[in-house]
Amino acid sequence: MTLSSSPVGFDDIAAQKRTPPVYRRRRGAIKHRHIGSYIAVAVVMIFFLFPLAFLLNTSLKSNAEFARNPMGLVIDPQWSNFPQAWSQGGFGTFILNSLLYTIGGAGIGVLITLVLGFPVARGYIRGARQMMIVFVLILFLPNALITQFQLLLHLHLYDSRLGYILIVAAGVGVGPLLFRGFVTSIPTELDEAAAIDGAGYWRFIFTFVAPLARPALTTVFLLQAVWIWNEIILATVLLPDQSKAPLTLGLFRFQGTYTNQWGLLSAATILVATPLIIAYVFLQRYIVAGVIGGAIKG
Question: Does 283 score more than 80 pLDDT?
Fold first, then answer.
């Protein structure tokens, strides 16, 4: 009997025979390594998603059901906890304050990072290397709450929105370090070419450096915005007027002297965290690009 074509799988068998055993073992090792990576990612996702799932499960419970079984799955979901938490916490007023503080503080923080980080990264000022060491040390120092309180008190900015915005804007954190990584990737010849063409220093920073370092600046803005949105200690001390309080202080309205409204408190916490989760879903590529790019290029 004559075959018109090669049997199915004949070419694959022949290719395997031509492939040395060493390479076949390496391919198998790579496949096993990928499986191990997937398992590790799944475990990490469980650790991160479990608190959110537990919080959502608690937010759907009534006080009586939570008292009977705090750790169990919800039996009678109370979806009305979310609108009740919104109205009881007064979030309609607080959310406007939080948006003002977050956008204003993070925006000024990005400006500080750009103006301060570029000359330090380029070494255009004296003691640039020492200043980078100071940036690192600041990350490990405690918050100077009393000093900030006294500063705003003497500047007559205590219990004011402007004073709080200026204080949170100064908390740039790792911003200068991330920005330095991107600045070092920009060739110094661009600085020289701009100087020869007559571009001023400030024009060069805002028209050339800022667009090139957009991923880093976006990451700095998002990281600082997350911190300002969740900040509660400075707001408690520096903003005694409840009409100027941010969204996080509304969570105190669900705590009593002897009992807590755990269902409403969990629902309110989800309402506070939802804008950050949505922002991260749409802007995560900028965060990854800014952190990884700054780490590699720095």
Answer: no
